[in-house]
Amino acid sequence: MNLRSLALAPALVLGLAVPALAEKIPLNELSRYLNRMTTATSEFTQVNPDGSISTGTVYIQRPGRVRFEYNNDNTLVLASAGNVAVFDPKSGDPQQYPLSQTPLSIILDANVDLGRANMVTAHAESKNATVVTAQDPQNPQYGNIQMVFTGGPTQLRQWVVTDDSGQKTTVILGEMREGGSIPASKFSINSELARRN
Q1: Between 20 and 30 A from 110 (CA), which of 1, 9, 28, 194?
Q2: What are phi and psi of 59, to 5 degrees?
Q3: pTM of the predicted protein model
Q4: What percent of the chain has pLDDT over 70?
């Protein structure tokens, strides 16, 4: 091999590597990834519908449980036992509604199947990430969730929930720590109600 072909070799390898990074991750692989995730913890930054920014820690225990703890604030969002409760000190009693009425239920479902008919409305590659927009096929009126995944290995990096009124909330995840155990009490709406009364 002469010097000229040696000099070209790294450029050729780099040229071959870039398209591989840019390929969108198949929906069945994303479903497998979410179904494998049992517990995860991450710092997060949230961009609220009014443009304000909140930060905190999110705890996920699939299926069906999530806890958003906000920094410098006594606000707490809990999902468990099929319900979501929003504890906001400014509004007194917590708001509660069924988890099935929020697009976040798609990530927390016991069996995520992004290949289900009419669930995914968009699946594209953007800036070396895979972006998937999904909705409940039976209840599209509840809004949708746009999830951003990176590859090698596959990891959920952020999501944007568009609710039934068209309001968007963006959650950008930090370094996700998967696995380990999270106490069940972290997700108990009743325990939190008792603690705050």
Answers
A1: 194
A2: -115, 125
A3: 0.83
A4: 89
